[in-house]
Amino acid sequence: MAESLLPRVTPTPGALGGVTAAAASQPAPRVSPAGRTTTPRVLSASRCGCPETGNAALEVAPGEEDMSSPNEQEGAEEKPAEGTQADDSSGQESKTSLPKESPTGEEEKEDVEQVETDTESIADDLEEQDDTEVPPKEEKSPEKEEKTISETFFYSYEDIYSRPFVTEDSGIPINLLTLKYSFGYDCIRSVNLMVMDSQSLLYVAGNQVVILDLKTKSQSYLRSSSGGGIGFLAAHPTKQYFAVGEKGEKPNLIIYDYPSLRPYRILRGGTNKGYVFGDFNHTGTLLASIGSSPDYMLTIWDWKQEKIVLRSKAFSQDVYRVTFSPDNEEQLTTAGVGHIRFWKMAHTFTGLKLQGALGRFGKTAVTDIIGYVELPDGKVISGAEWGNLLLWEGGLIKVELCRAGHKPCHNGPVSQIVLDEGELVTVGKDGFIRVWNFEAIDAADSVDETGLLEMEPMNELHVGKNVSLSFMSKIYDCGHPFWYSQGANGTIWKLDLTFSNITHDPECLCTFHSGRIEAMSVSPITYLMATTALDRSVRIYDFISNSQRSEIHFKQGGTALTWAPHVVNPEGGLIAVGFEDGVVRIIEVYDPTGLPTLVGRSNIGNAEINLKQAFKPHTTAVTALAYERNGDILATGSKDKTVFFFAVENEYKPVGFIYVPGPVQALQWSPPSHVASMLLILCENGYVLQVPAPLPEKLDTASTYHIKNLPTQYFHFYSIKSRIKLEEEIALRERKKQEKEKAKLERIIQLQEMGMEVEEEPEEEEPLPPIYIPEEPSPILCGFYSAPGKFWLSLGGYDSGFLYHCAFSSNEHQEDPENRQDEPFEVIPIEDTDDNPIHQISFCTSRLLMFCGMQNGALRVYPLRDKDLSVNTLKEYWSFNVHDNDYGQIRGICCSYDDRFLITCGGDGNIFTFNILSPEDVHKELKAQIPPPRRGLEKEKAAEDIEDPNACNIEEVKQKKEYERIMKEAEDKKSKKREELVALRQEFLFLLQKNQELPKHMQLQREQYEMDRRVFEELNRQTAQRIQLVEKELAWEHEKHLIGLQKLQNWFRDSLEFDTVVVHAIQSNHEISTYRLLAISEKYYQDKERPSWKKTVLKRAWKKTEKKEIVRERKSRIVEREADKLKSKVQKPTTRFIESKREQIKRIVEKSDKEKAKIMKRKEEWEELYKSKPSVDYEDPRDVQAIKEAQENMGCYKLKTATDYRVPQDKRMNTEKKMMQLASLEVVIYKKKVNMNKQIMALRDFKVSVVEEIKCLLQELKSVQAALDLSERLPLPLIPQLHPDEVPEKRFEYDRDILLKFKEGQAAKAKLQEQFEESLSSGAFRHSFKSSYKETGSPQQTGSSHTIRRASSVIVEQQKVFVIEKAEPTEMELEILKKEKIKNIYLQETLINKINALVINFDAELRFLRHKKLQLDVQMKYADLSYITWFEELLILKNTEENENLLQGRVNTLHSEQEALQSKLNSYLAQMEDKMSEIVKLQECEKALYASFQASLGENNEFAHFLTKLLKNKFKCMQKKVERETDEKDESEEESDEESSLESDEEDSGSEDEISDISVCPKNCDKALFQNTIQLREKRLDIKEALIREKKVAAKLRKEYNVLFEKAKSVESSLNTAEKELDIFQWNKQQKLNDLYVVVPLKLHQVEYFFNGEIPRDFSQALVFTNQSLDYLQRRIVDLHHEKVTQREIYKEAQQQYKQLVRDKKEMEITIQRLEEKCSQLMMMKFGRVVDFEAVRARSVNIRVEELELQIIEKEYEHSQEIKEYAKRILDLQQKLMMLTKENTMKVRQLNQFCLEKQQLETKLDSLKDDLGVEFQGSRTADIKEKARMESQLKHLAHDGAILREEINLLSRKDGHLIEQLSLLTKNSRFLQPSSPQDLETPDETFPVLTP
Questions:
Q1: Considering the entire predicted model, what is its pTM?
Q2: Of 1293, 521, 558, which is closest to residue 903 (Cα–Cα)?
Q3: CB-hemisphere CA count at 13 Å for 450?
Q4: What pLDDT digit, counting tens, does each position of 629-644 carry?
Q5: I want to staple 640 with a disulfide (CB 3.0 to 4.6 A). Which of 543, 620, 769, 1185 is the partner?
Q6: What share of the chain is helix, strand, coil (3-state, %, to 5)?
Q7: Who contacts 1710 (Cβ-Cβ below 8 Å, separation ≥6)?
Q8: pLDDT digits (tens, 9 = 90+) for 1397-1437
Q9: Full 3-state SS string of 553-614
């Protein structure tokens, strides 16, 4: 139904007449590919080459701009609607101002930014339009009805959709190509699926909206109105409308009606470049849209009235989505790159505004937000890139949701979140759809610092393997809810999310390529096409039945594809496909119905794909495939800069490959029209090559497939675009220059005719732009042969915009291709391709049409007249925007084999088929024939595929085989040589044996075996060189292992300060070991160094401050000296009188100062005395100190577990103190262990010395025992041995022997085969030779040994004979021998005892030290237990540290605030006391004034009542009253009321008449008394005002004091509360510390806690005291009893002393009173009244008056000097005035002279006029104008003369206003300035004579 109602893209012949009529009535412009508009044209069918339509086939191309507004179509009599927008988008922009945006920096700095737009609401917009569009008659009406667009109004689709662009007068039919079907799907878009009902799906395909019927798979299309592409689709909540946001310059947003698909509304002016997303509100009344770069404009539409309600810039980066809140339509949300923003439509005093608050991520990483949903309570849930959910509240992240175990909610970004029927549904890129508990998420809150909350989904659905979901939409089908989902891998799914027993499985409705189409090709014999993409699939489409026939998937993505031509496979079923891993696969398409039916297999009708062969010629992606024209060779090109050739047979066989200078872009074989079969190779980097087809029989491929001698022609493109532009610029300048010269010549002729001179001005020419050559060569996009050796190229980058005709050089000896610079010989400019190059070029079979695929997705068709390209041929073209304009560049263009159809594929994943000049109805009889299968296909084994992307290519396999062959030959040669050497060695050994068997004199010597000594020397030299070489080779390894060993030593040994050393006893099993200690960290010693560091820093700071003070003093002194110098300069020399007066004042001042000093000294003495007076609550400091010591030392013995226990301030523990405590404990442990280790090491050294001494003693003992008989010798003591663990440092000492032993041990573990190979080396041969030689030398050695033995036996026999012959000793000799024997026995015993003593002493020392170490071990265990306890306390303190710091900080803050408030209160109290004292003084003054008034009245004064009334009258001088009112103008009403009430209460005056009567002195009244009363009244009023003012100030101070006092009270209460909280926290912390277990080892005698005479098992109620503490408490009881008795005695003595002091005080007060009375009597006798004697003495002379008189004298002297200076200046100014007067007089005379000359010239002119001829008589226009000009000039001159006269009068005056009046006169009359340009041109005219 939808398809029948939809208007087709191309009208049928029967409907063309109607279209023509509509076009005649409403002509509309066309739209070019670049977006420009052209005028409409009517083309005849005969001219378009369309005979089927006849004369009725007329077509119009209406554009987008000529769209009449709805109200203009309602009737001609009706006025234009004020509410409608203008057609032009600029008109809309003028009525809706853009928002004032804040810069992006403020968006990053502020947490929540309020953005108020400057847009108006609908009412404001209507008011503006009323002002501009309402006629004058209607402006007078007070109210005006707003006209709205009718609900039934629709636009015409034929008037708005974009049509192809055709060059004017080209004769190209506009229906040259008509869209037939769309096979692709743009899954790159995140949201490209819209469901309007259960049978139709809508999605965007390039410049079309496709409406897909799910049942029939038929498609209908809606074209974009601008041809710039489509940005988004959005469905109305009622599914009655849907919005299409377009792209392009000033794009439209069109609302279509569904299912009629008629344009309902067109919204203009919402963005500049394109729409990204749009959304209707819940009621459907408003529409929100988001624009793309650069404006990112958020626009709120009243779409039914085509009005903008609000607009604002959404963000400074890409925005993905915008949605209305379903529960609050005044709230919106936008999200995109790294941001989310919450918008609110707020009513402000300036109207409706849009306010945006930027979401702050806080600790969470910034993420791009794709999916989100608004909750009913205003919260927002969004997804993150890592798969978790973020819950936003108030612009901040409240909690981050994840699954259990901190697993993400989705393994990838969350693409969509939906709130459906109370459940939260999330769609992930991982292919999962999960349903979450909405209530739990809405109430979620973070539970720890990570901000994560674990939660599991209620249900989940895994759509499929390798499925990535982007978007889904819900629809009801027969009352059952279903979801249609868009897959990012090119699929559309139908999902059932009911999660019940009858839930349907996910159903895949459609499959497409995902991403851009990489390659495409069509069958050479039928209507089939094949496509491939990086989604690893190859698909076969039937573009007659508009269906996909088959698809096959591989492990890697496809990058190139070509269908084998008819000569290769006559059935047309063979396809070659190249992949991104370098593999080329040959696949065949066949009809499975042609195969024999097997058991269990049913042959279906669709095509099947079979892999025939797979081979890998390249290492990277295959970019091009091409079959030779005869079908013998297949060429493949790749990005690895190689081109491989294969012989096309039943099985493709490699021929060889060549290297090319760059990555291959395209391959093309020469057409059959060329004589030779040549291959054109296009490289991306600007190289073009031509090679002939290689002949397999002439190539040697035994070792490599590389073809080295293949003739190759090179072409290296050299950019000439800059030179072309330069030539165009030169030609343009030449034309302009010729035009200028022509215009200049005409102007010269005109001036010469007028009799004027011509002045030529040289013109400077701008320098020509330099020739630009791009650094990186422009990429070659496509190309094709034009003739043998010639070709056309299309380039991108800088050189785009032209087609270049190039040719290969004919020179056979070509130079290096990299150094070539080849230029094309012909260039054709292509219109509108500077930034839109041609990517693909294809021709139809007849080569009459050239199809071009553009970068912006447009399709161009150029008709070729002579099958060749020329400038005139390519001026006319047909263009149509098909694919997406941003990323839909055309990747392939193919014509069907019969040129009936055209197929295009693009980077947007879309595939379109077009009819070429034939209506669709004609193709109904056509049918695609699927090729039949090959014979025996069913019996063939499946071809072996290459699945490993890292597999070797063909050349690598060949090289590997060749290498293996060479290595095998080498091994064979080695084995033969080894066999020969073994045979020679055996022969040599046999000869050696024969030599040994010969007689001795006939044997050969060792030297005779050496044929040439130089051979062994050479061998030794070579061995030394090899050793050096090996050392060099192993140097890096040697250094590496050395560094590794050093690191190990640094890590494991150097960190040790003491290793474990075990010292063993000599005669027992006792032993002692050291503590294994690590080097202690330096941090424990920092605290000890801090004080010294602080002292040094403080000293430096003190020095700096001292230096600064010294510098300041020096500066102040310098300033004082300079000031003194200046004063001395300024001061004038004074008279002697001034000096003497100054000396006199100085003496008076000194005298006064002395008196004041005495008075001040006496006052200080009194103050000190009063200060020493103790106060009432005075306490003796000794008593206070004693009380303090008692409080500190009496101790608090409350249990720490008690509820009333409070932790003292000094005993409160925090983390820092505990860490210091632990550090000090570690230091103590470390020191004790170090001390013990030193003793043990000393013991070890002692043992070493004992061993050495025992060795010496044993040596001596052996010498003594040598003189004793064996029976007398005592057994030797054993030498003590040092155990290995006593000297562990020797374990790390090694030498070469140890290393060799280790090496031998490693070598012994080697295999026997390695030993055998080592035996075969030359070294083994030489070793065997030496061993044989040793064997030959052994008989001689045995012979010599026999002679030695014989000689020794003879000597022994001679000695025996000598002994026998010796005589017996005498008695003396026997005695001597006996003494020696006794001595030796004694020495033997002594030495043995000494050795035993050494051993016993050492063992005793070891046992003693071992006992000490055991005691230390006990202490260390205690310390370790304490350390563990303290460390547990540290952990608790760390956990509570943050809260404690907060509480303590609060207490400290309140303390400081309390102190500040207390200081303010004290200052206010002081001010209040001062004010009260001032008030008392004023009141006393008032009393004194009344007393003086009464005294002046005297007794019985008849005017007493009048004068009293006059005194109390409030009348005052008016000036003072006004001043008072102005001063009190800013006072509050309360104060003014108080003042008026006070005045009214105090004054008893009557009306103003009474005041006037009182102000007159009555008769017989003393005038002096009257005046005195008036003066007293003025004084009284002044005192009263001052008193009122002071009271006000005092009241104000009191009020402020009360406020502060209340604040201080609240602060004090807060402080008390905070201190209580801190105490409670400290108690809780103490309880946590109390819960820790503390190990206290006790012995039984230390336990005094018994229960029924037994030790209880439960010690929880026991207390642990030290013995010292217990003894102290017991002694303290007695001490306190004695102290109590002593204090009572002291108190009694102090009480008696106090009574005595009270009596003494009373006596002293009586004495003071008596002395004061005596002083008062003396003053009355001397002065007549009581005076302040000190004040009298201090104020005997008024120093201030004297100083002022002296200053007056000095000022008078200075003024007299200044008067003299001014008199001199006046004389100088008078002289200057005289000079100016003379100068002006001269000017007046000149002016008079000029006037006389003018009169003379006028008389001459009059006389000349009388003599003129008749021909000049009569009135002429020129004379009249000249006369008028002269008269006006005369008036101006007269005016200037008046100004001169005024100036003369001013100069003649001598008053002081001369300069001011001159300046005013100059400003007003522009003194001496020409009044018109004519005055400047006539300088020779004279002024008129000025007559008085």
A1: 0.56
A2: 521
A3: 7
A4: 999 999 999 999 999 9
A5: 620
A6: 45, 20, 35
A7: none
A8: 999 999 999 999 999 999 999 999 989 999 999 999 999 99
A9: ECCCCEEEEEECCCCCCCCCCEEEEEECCCCEEEEEEECHHHCCCCCCCCCCCCCEEEEEEE
